[in-house]
Every structure is written in C-alpha cells, then in structure tokens.
Amino acid sequence: MSPDPFPRAEVRIDLDLIRHNLALLAGRAAASGAATMAVVKADAYGHGAVPVARAALEAGATWLGACSLAEALTLREAGIQAPMLAWLDTADTDYTPAIAAGVDLGLSNAGELERAASAARRAGGRARVHLKIDTGLSRNGCPPHAWPALVKSAAADSAVEVVGIWSHLACADEPGHPSIDAQASRFQQAYDVALEAGLHPMRHLANSAATLTRPDLHFDLVRVGIAMYGLNPVPQPEDLRPAMTFRSSVVSTKRVDAGESVSYGHTWTAEAATTLALVPAGYADGVPRTLSGRLDVWLDGRRRPVVGRVCMDQIVVDCGDHEPAPGTEVVLFGSGEGGAPTATEWADKIGTIDYEIVTGMCRPRVARSYTGQR
Fold first, then answer.
1. Element (H, E) at 189
2. Are 47 and 369 in contact (CB under 8 A)?
3. 16 with 372: CB under 8 angstroms?
4. 15-229 and 244-371: same fold?
5. Contact assessment for residue 117 and residue 158, using Cβ atoms and an 8 Å cutoff
6. How far is it, in rounded angstroms, from Cα 105 to Cα 324?
7. In the structure, what pLDDT confidence band is assigned to residue 373 with cuts at 50, 70 and 90?
8. pLDDT level of residue 7 (50, 70, 90 thresholds)
9. What is residue 70's three-state secondary structure?
10. How far apart are CA 95 and CA 91, in angstroms?
11. Hey, which residues are catalytic here?
C-alpha cells in the first residue's frame, strides 16, 4: 500500500532533485564564467513553473526563461523578482506589461522591436530586449540579411536597451554534429555586427545539451531546460535524476481463465489463468494509446505488463498469481530506480522525446504534488 492517499492519477515532483540537477548544471556553467537561466516554459515542462522556479533560484540559477509574456507575468505575480526573459508571443501581444514588470523580451524582427519601443514609450520606461539571430535552426530569429538593420535600429532607439544577443542550437544533443560549429561561427559574426553598432550585450547560445558538452559555447549565460528536470539530452551518462513520478493505484482485481481476452479489440488473450489489476489512468491522463502492448508498470516491487489496449480512463495489468490490494500504488514512470519504467523509456518505445512525455502531464485529471523542501 502507498503510505499516503493520492488521486486516481498524479505526478509527484521532487523539488530536491530539481535542485540537484540545477546545481550540477550551474556548476558546469560557472566553471566557464557563465550564469544560468532556468527555463520554466510550458509550466516548467509539466512540473509546475512557480515551485520549480523557486527551487532553481535556490540552487544557483540567476535567470528564468519563459516562452510567453503571460508565463513570465505569472511568475512575477507569484512574487518572483529574478531577471526573466520571454521570447515568443503572438503578433498582437501588448508588451506594455513587460515594461512595468521588468520582463526582458526576446525579439527577432523590426516589427517586434517597434512594438516593444512603443510599449516602452507608453509606459514611460525602456524595453529590455534580447535580439535573436537565426544561426541555422530556421525557426524563430532574425535572418542574417536583416540582422544589421535590426541591430542599428535597436542601437538608435532610446526606448530600447539591448541586454543580450542570442540564438538556439539545432543539434546540440548530437555532440560533434557539424551544424554546432557552423552555428557558433554565425553567432560570432552576428555579435561582431552588434559590437560595430556600439552595443555591448551579453551572449547566450547554449541549451542543456551544450551546457553539458560545449563549455566553449557557454559565453555569458546558459539556458538549461530538460536537463534541469533530470532527463539527459546527450548520449553520455550524467548524474541527472528525473524529478517527476507518474503514479496511480489499483482499483480492483479479478481472476480470469486461460483463453479470456482483455480490452477493446481483444488484442491480448491470457495463455493461462491469471490475475488482472485495473488501474484508473488512460490516454486522457497522458498514457499514450500507442504504448498498448508495450507498456510495463511498477507494482508491488516489480515490473508488470499492461495487457490489452490503453483506454481513455484505464489500463489493465497482468499480475500472474499475485493479487495486489485495492489502493496499491502503481508507478507508470519515474526515476527508474530498481528497474522501474522511465519517461525516456516511454518516449523511445513510441518514437518521440521525453520532453513530450513529461510536458504532456499537464492535464485536468492529473493532480500534481511535491516532495522536497518548498
């Protein structure tokens, strides 16, 4: 039995492991003279932005990164006053609240720069901006041909303070990929243009993978995301510890005879009499239906297979001759300790990345709780 009651589906976040992971990453950055930004976008990758942000700052982060301005303002409303960057919003977003709240803006084009400057003039302040150069990801970021004009405009506008120059790596999780050095070279060229325009901004390029493998690219600030949550973005082992455990419990058990089939489509049939345990978590709770026939859970000290198709609200576990009591904890993924399943294992089985698995735990029916100091 679990030592404490919990909802039908829950993610439990260990904030001490967040601190452990962030301290490791911040230590790598500090060895190169760089500060650390903890990226808490998408509700901290499903882990909860406010408690994770606080834990990260306690462990050595000095910056926070959000995707949208709304995400950043949520942190400000919670009383978090650390330097903060927000970098992707819709074309009609009003930047005025960013000026009042002291949130830095990541900008990629002349239109965004003008909107930020106009907001600053309305607010009677200056917009703190980080100009993003596209060095080869071909996603967000200013294309090289437009970069000199963007930099000159920013340098000439008294309503704007250019705090940083930044970009994002496409293949840092593949150490040795030739695009990494190519992007680093383009980034240096873009920085030189900024210097020629009279700017002296900080530089940031390294994500989690580059923080772990490319100290030469740490520059002034690294941005750590997935690794802070304990999921390793690079092939070599690192002392990163997954902070999220996804768990449920046994609702009931039943004994079935050989030849009986389970769940929709009868894709699994018992070869011998066995005990089945019903667990109230399904694809509406973040268990991918594509894991049907490939999923194990941790139940009463060992891995046990989920049989039949994953349903919207439930899965069925084959327990053999073991009969777990109703209320027994079922770990769907977690730290992997003792051989239990992990989010990375789920991702590998269905051809995705563990980022998607943990972020997908932001669901209405999935409760969230915390262990470790808050």
1. helix 178-196
2. no
3. yes
4. no
5. no
6. 53
7. confident
8. confident
9. helix
10. 10
11. 41, 264
Q: Domain locations in the chain?
A: 15-229, 244-371
Is 202 annotated as a binding-site member? no
Find the angle CA(28)-CA(88)-CA(11) to the nearest 5 degrees.
65
Q: What is the pLDDT of residues 53-71, one digit of tens each?
A: 999 999 999 999 999 999 9
- DSSP per position, 2-56: -SS---SSEEEEEHHHHHHHHHHHHHHHHHTT-EEEEE-HHHHHTT-HHHHHHHH
Tokens 């563990």 correspond to 354
No. of H helices and E strands in the chain? 11, 19
CA dist 213 to 28, 63, 66, 238, Å?
10, 21, 24, 11
| Share of residues in the chain with pLDDT > 70 (%) | 98
DSSP per residue, 287-347: --GGGTTT-EEEETTEEEEEES---SS-EEEE-TT--PPTT-EEEEEBB-GGG--BHHHHH
pTM: 0.96
Identify the band that residue 368 occupies on the pLDDT scale cut at 50, 70 and 90.
very high
CA 271 to chain CA centroid, Å, is: 41
Query: Rounded CA gap, 69 and 74, in Å?
Result: 9
Is residue 312 marked as binding? yes
CATH number among 3.20.20.10, 1.10.3720.10, 3.90.1170.20, 3.40.718.10, domain 15-229: 3.20.20.10
What is 244-371's CATH superfamily? Lyase, Ornithine Decarboxylase; Chain A, domain 1 (2.40.37.10)
Residues 6+ apart with CB under 8 A from 152: 197
Spatial neighbors of 75 by CB under 8 A, at least 6 apart, are 40, 49, 50, 53, 64, 66, 84
